[in-house]
Request: fold
Amino acid sequence: MRLAAVDLGASSGRVIVGSVGPGQLEIEEVRRFANGAVRIGHRNGSTLHWDVLGIYRETLTGLRAVGDLDGIGIDSWAVDYGLLDAHGALLGNPVHYRDSRTDGVLESLIRRVPARKLFDITGLQQLPFNTLYQLISDRERLDSAETMLMIPDLLAYWLTGRIGAERTNASTTQLYDVRAQAWAIGLAEQVGIPVRLLPPLRDPGERIGTLLPDLAAELGMPEVPVVAVGSHDTASAVVAVPAESGANFAYISSGTWSLVGLELDAPELSDAAMAANFTNETGVDGTIRFLRNVMGLWVLTETLRTWDARGHHVDLAEVLTAAAEVQPLRAVVDIDAPAFLPPGDMPARIRAACEQTGQRPPESAAETVRCVVDSLALAYRRTVRQAAELAGKTVDIVHLVGGGTRNQLLCQLTADACGVPVLAGPVEAAALGNVLVQARTLGADLPDLAAMRALVRQTQPLRTYQPSGTDDWAAAEARLAPGRVG
Ligand code: ADP
Ligand code: LRH
Reply:
């Protein structure tokens, strides 16, 4: 069967066609388009938006180009949403999670609702842009809204006319009860979020509907089924982690963000997990993604963008080759520091962070990039270890998936830092996970995650990186110890 995966990352969106049969899983990229923040000025300053109509248009252009299809699935980055009015019309343009409208909202909410209670109900990490905090900062618009739809659910609504909230993405809102597996109605009421905004939940694997007749005609295709997949891109990416059954594995979904953690059967809601700011997101087939958001390749992309804006273009592949020759671990930063979250001058922020910890800041482009990649690998090491310790598990192998697998320096340093082999690939894990869940719904013999992962292992190019055990990662970590000032 031929299935279209619409996979919307924070850096790029893609429409990928997957062909699935017994022992067969092939993907072909039909369309890729840039995605990112659009800043719009207004009387009170400015707001970072997504170009959601552009994303929809590109999705349709991709679908038009695919030819015969048996199904469509949509996944995207988490936490962001569109609001619909009582007629189903979009109210305003969705806001980007990196917008500053949520500054201080978390801090003021936890004075009313204890952070422990929030974690106990939702199992979610505290990130300033969780949907809950965005909705609170959006309060004025909520009165005119009837429904909140997460980005993939919004696109699915435009394709099918059906309203619903797919569970894996709903679980990233901080309004979802991780144990009851239902909207956290009591919490919504307590914080003043109108409960009518929260649509009925749907499971990954459910059929959402079929393409609206007019749209199908416009696209020149039949009324193809649209299937709910793990609509959170990280949920879909973890479906396609090519782990062996029974293996003790950690995963790193490495793209704009790096999502680093373990797959568990039940949420881990201990005080220690909360203190380490781990999250328990809902995965496909009732699994839990116990992970932490590491700031990710965003810092590298934004570094290159800063240089570009100054008229100094640096090619990613060339600078990574040069960075591989730079002295390892000469300077490292805490890549998860809040300073690296908003768009802006990353090289300056990196220099400041090095100075604050008494390290000589990187000077050349290659040194700066090496500092970012070393710091990412160091954060991977810290997070894999913490995850294993918090969940009482052993990690024998790290699976690295997503665009970051194209960065060979990062893959090797991850193996070195974590001290276990890294199996890198597939690159398009989220699209593959999307295709696999659709395939099962539409009749493929893929009964469980183990079968899906076995098919990925058999069919996708993967590369192993062995740890070299040469560099001193513990000493580098010590340089970042709290309170250490140069
Ligand atoms: P997202 O899904 O968040 O948009 P991706 O999984 O597509 O992100 O990963 C994008 C990242 O992959 C880029 O930021 C870049 O750092 C990395 N990447 C992509 N291609 C290459 C390449 N040829 N060499 C090194 N890194 C690459
Ligand atoms: C990765 C991702 C991640 C979320 C972030 C907002 O694309 O979905 O899992 O935390 O975007």
The mean pLDDT is 97. The two ends are 60 Å apart (CA to CA).
